[in-house]
Design brief:
It comes from Vibrio casei. InterPro entries: Acyl_CoA_acyltransferase, GNAT_dom. Keywords: Transferase. By secondary structure, this protein is an alpha+beta fold. It has one domain: Gcn5-related N-acetyltransferase (GNAT) (Aminopeptidase, 3-Layer(aba) Sandwich), CATH 3.40.630. The chain is built from four helices and six strands; from the N terminus they run ααβββαβαββ. The chain has a six-stranded mixed β-sheet, with helices on both faces. The longest helix has 19 residues. The protein starts with 5 loop residues before the first helix and ends with a strand.
Length: 151
């Protein structure tokens, strides 16, 4: 993601996460927190159509626990493999960035609503499995999914 991508990504954020507010500020904070947060966009020839936010958890460590914090695709671009592409194409870039710090990826965690069909995407792309259900965490029950032993 580049600074110029933030306004378009904020529109996607607002459409994907309707209960959240201040989309531009939220994304800008994540964007500015590199390398703790690594943010990537999916774009067509003319537009930003999605983004992904990866975040390192619990400090910079030699074996990294990484969170797939947010993944969003514009409504008109959904069901076209863009979410899958964002995960599959950005994760090697994240691993490369970690390697610059002599770190390796140990675990990926994801939280999402229990009714979110993206659970299947997380399972098929990174091997995440449901670890537990957390009742009424944000707007509903959430699942915590974990992909282990990724180094």
């Amino acid at each position: 993601m580049a600074q110029d991508d933030l306004p378009k990504a904020a529109i996607i954020h607002a459409s994907a996460f309707v209960r959240q507010s201040d989309s531009l500020e939220w994304l800008e904070c994540s964007f500015k927190a590199f390398p703790r947060y690594m943010v990537f966009v999916a774009e067509t020839e003319s537009d930003i159509v999605g983004y992904i936010i990866w975040s390192q958890k619990s400090g910079f460590r030699p074996e990294v626990v990484l969170e797939l914090e947010q993944l969003a695709v514009s409504p008109e671009s959904q069901k076209k493999g863009i979410g899958r592409a964002l995960i599959m194409e950005s994760l090697p870039l994240v691993k490369r960035q970690l390697a610059l710090k002599n770190a390796v990826l140990k675990t990926i965690l994801v939280t999402t609503r229990t009714d979110n069909y993206a659970q299947e995407l997380y399972k098929s792309t990174i091997g995440a499995e449901v670890e537990t259900v957390i009742s009424n965490l944000y707007s509903a029950d959430e699942v915590l999914m974990i992909a282990r032993n990724l180094s």
